[in-house]
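Checked the freezer inventory, then went back to the computational side. Two predictions to log before the end of the day. The first one is the construct we discussed on Monday; recording sequence and C-alpha cells without edits.
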Amino acid sequence: MLPVDKKDGMTTLPPKIKKQVLLENMNINGGINRCVNYNIEAIRPNKHERGITATANEIHMDHIISQNKGEKGTITNAQIICRTCNLNKSYNK
C-alpha cells in the first residue's frame, strides 16, 4: 500500500522510488536533474516558508498517468518536472 498524503488524500511516491527516479534522471542528464518537459535544471526544494514563493525550477515528482486514472506510484509512472510544469499541469485538468 502506498503512503497517503494527509493534505489531499492522494498517494505519494515512496521514498525508495523517488530516489530511483532522481538518480535515473541524473544519469541521463550528466549528473544534474532536469525537467523532462523543458529540459531545464531542476533543483532540490528548500524548506517552504510562509510568504516565500518557491523557485520555478524546483523539482516536483510527478505521476505520468494520474492516480485517478488507475495508475500507481511506480518507477515506470514517475518523472521529474519543474514546479512550473506541475502547476500548469494542475491548472489544465
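The second is the one RB wanted added to the comparison set:
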Amino acid sequence: MPKKFNSQEVFSSEVSYNGIISKVLNSPQKYIQSPGALHNLGNYLKLLESKHAAVLITPGGDKRYDQILSDSFKRAGIDDPYCFSG
C-alpha cells in the first residue's frame, strides 16, 4: 500500500526556501464525469474524510447547481460548501 501523502513533509517551514512556504491544494487523484455526477459529489468528497468543502463555480453555475450541490453535501454529511465565484 502506498504511503499516504503528507503535505507537511514537503510544505513546511523546516523545508521552505528563505522561510517562504508554498500553498498546497490537495485533491483526489480522480476526474469524474457523467450525467448527474453533481448529484453524487458529496459521496465522492466523503471519501476524502472531510466535513468541509469549497467549490470554485461561476455565478451562472451557482444559480443552476446550488440546490443540487447543497442536497448532495447534506446527504453525505458534509457542511454546505463555501462557494468561490470565478
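For RB: The mean pLDDT is 78. The chain is about 30% helix and 10% strand. Let me know if you want it refolded.
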